[in-house]
Amino acid sequence: MRYITFALAKGRLAKNALALFEQIGITCEEMKDEKTRKLIFVNEELGFKFFLAKPTDVPTYVEYGAADIGIVGKDTLLEEGRELYEVLDLNMGKCRMCVAGPESAKEKLKHHELIRVASKYPNIAKDYFYNQKNQTVEIIKLNGSVELAPIVGLAEVIVDIVETGATLKENGLGVLEEVCPLSARMVVNQVSMKMENERISKIINDLRAVIPKD
Ligand code: PRP
Q1: C-beta of 163 in contact with ligand 1 (< 6 A)
Q2: Which ligand 1 atom is nearest residue 170's CA?
Q3: Cβ(144) – ligand 1 distance below 6 Å
Q4: Cα separation of 13 and 19, whole Å?
Q5: In the chain, what are the domain boundaries?
Q6: Between the chain's N and C termini, which has fewer beta carbons within 10 Å?
Q7: pLDDT tens-digit profile of 140-174?
């Protein structure tokens, strides 16, 4: 039997996804050890392999077939734009992609002024402003703590993930526009979906029954 390989986005998402997998009998005890430096985990009995990767790399592993299945946020899928099948919304890690900034940026957005937009997600930001709003902006790529940008004058607004809204609030910023809702998704390599259809379809169907409801 060929191994089915899972790539999980490191962090909270991986933990929640593993808990979901446990409910359908897919377990990997080794992976729960937080001190381990091991990168890949095998369940010989079930014929599954698991590895943790940086969220932005998960779609890459899946597109190239180094992983058959990936668990990753919709934000990363939209940003990376890889060729793969998105098969399930896991209804976890729910949040929103938003345009955020100080109150004063509202008018600038409204009048389509040439503003600067800072984001960890330049492709999402570009698609939103250029294709959905037909608004020309300058996009500045950052790698984290994006909320800093409007505070220190690097950009007028940001495009970023908002979960509770606490980070924005504590920094005197707010949501100005909503780009799209986000959540964790399961993705599948296009060739694996054909070659391992039976096993992968079973995983999808079993998961459907245990995905948390709203
Ligand atoms: C994310 C996001 C926001 C924050 C939103 O950052 O970029 O900063 O969480 O959450 P909240 O609405 O509940 O406050 P993350 O912690 O991933 O780190 P980052 O700043 O490095 O992107």
Answers
A1: yes
A2: 14
A3: yes
A4: 10
A5: 4-93+183-210, 95-181
A6: C
A7: 999 999 999 999 999 999 999 999 999 999 999 99
Nearest residue (CA) to ligand 1, atom 19: 144
Residues counted in the chain: 214
Does the beta carbon of 91 lie inside 6 Å of ligand 1? no
Cut 0.85: pTM above it: yes
Does residue 75 line the site of ligand 1, with CB under 6 A?
no
Task: Determine the Cα–Cα distance for residues 99 and 161; give it in Å rounded to an integer.
Answer: 9
What is the dotted CATH code of the domain comprising 95-181?
A: 3.40.190.10
Q: What DSSP string runs through 24-79?
A: TT---GGGG-TT----EEEETTTTEEEEEE-GGGHHHHHHTTSSSEEEEEHHHHHH
Q: How many CB atoms lie within 10 A of CB 90?
A: 21
CA 124 – ligand 1 centroid, Å: 16
